[in-house]
Amino acid sequence: MSALSSSLTFIGPWPEHLSRVSGFHVFNRWSDAQNSLIKFQPPIIGLGLTTLLEKGFQKFLQEFSQKNPNLVLVLVAPQEIPVKDLALLRRQYPIAYTLHQFDDPQLQTILHQAMEIHRWKGHFNELRRMRENHSDRLGKVQAELKNRIEKRELTLIASRDKVVEQNRWTESQSQVIAAAV
Questions:
Q1: Residues 6+ apart with CB under 8 A from 57
Q2: Under a CB-based contact definition with an 8 Å cutoff, are residues 35 and 70 in contact?
Q3: What is the pLDDT of residues 53-90, one digit of tens each?
Q4: What distance in Å separates the CA atoms of residue 154 and residue 54, rounded to the nearest whole number?
Q5: How far is CA 54 from the centre of its chain?
Q6: Contact indicator for 102, 15 with CB cutoff of 8 Å
Q7: Alpha-carbon span 25 to 7, nearest angstrom
């Protein structure tokens, strides 16, 4: 597990050996983890269903997720939970994986995959910001071009009107000269 170098937070009865891994923070209750969550801004939080459903935790998690859009949750939920209920939770929260026990033998693999999801979300959000910035700049350039085109049209119209007026004057002078001859 030492290959995972980021600060990860686990809330609930996770295996004892996780607390000995550098960068891993294990807490029994979310209220104990709150300061650590704010301080370390972990990319991954492992937690049980009872923690997720606690009234105060849901509000905290929503605010925390807004500040940390790349957050990934690893949820431990009993196998008896209906799939539709888990799907609803996945739509509400950034749950990447659902385990059925805290000491799942695939935990290390799942944490590595969760870290990849976190990185992917970061890249995706960065691309989204870049696209928005480019869209904003493109909009400004388009507005500037539109203004330039409108100014150029007005200049061309004024020039055309001068040419038309000059042609009328030249034509009238030609008629006067032709009448005088």
A1: 30, 51
A2: no
A3: 888 888 898 889 888 999 999 999 999 999 999 999 99
A4: 66
A5: 26
A6: yes
A7: 7
**Helix, strand or coil for residue 73?**
strand
Beta strands 72-76; 44-48: pairing state: parallel
In terms of Cα–Cα distance, which of 89, 49, 95 is closest to 74?
95
Report yes or no: 47 and 71 within 8 Å, Cβ to Cβ: no
User: Cβ of 13: how many Cβ atoms within 10 Å?
Assistant: 13
User: pTM value?
Assistant: 0.72
Adjacent-strand bridge partners of 11: 27, 47
The amino acid that residue 77 corresponds to is: A
Residue 12 has, within 13 A of its CA and on its CB side, a CA count of 18
pLDDT digits over 131-171, tens only? 999 999 999 999 999 999 999 999 999 999 999 999 999 99
| Residues with Cβ within 8 Å of residue 173, at least 6 apart in sequence | none
Structure tokens given for 58: 């849901």
Q: Kindly indicate the confidence band of residue 6, based on its pLDDT and cuts at 50, 70 and 90.
A: low
Q: Decide if 33 contacts 9 (C-beta within 8 A).
A: yes
Backbone angles phi, psi at 24, to 5 degrees: -100, 135
Type of residue found at 68: N
> Distance between CA 47 and CA 33 in Å, rounded?
11
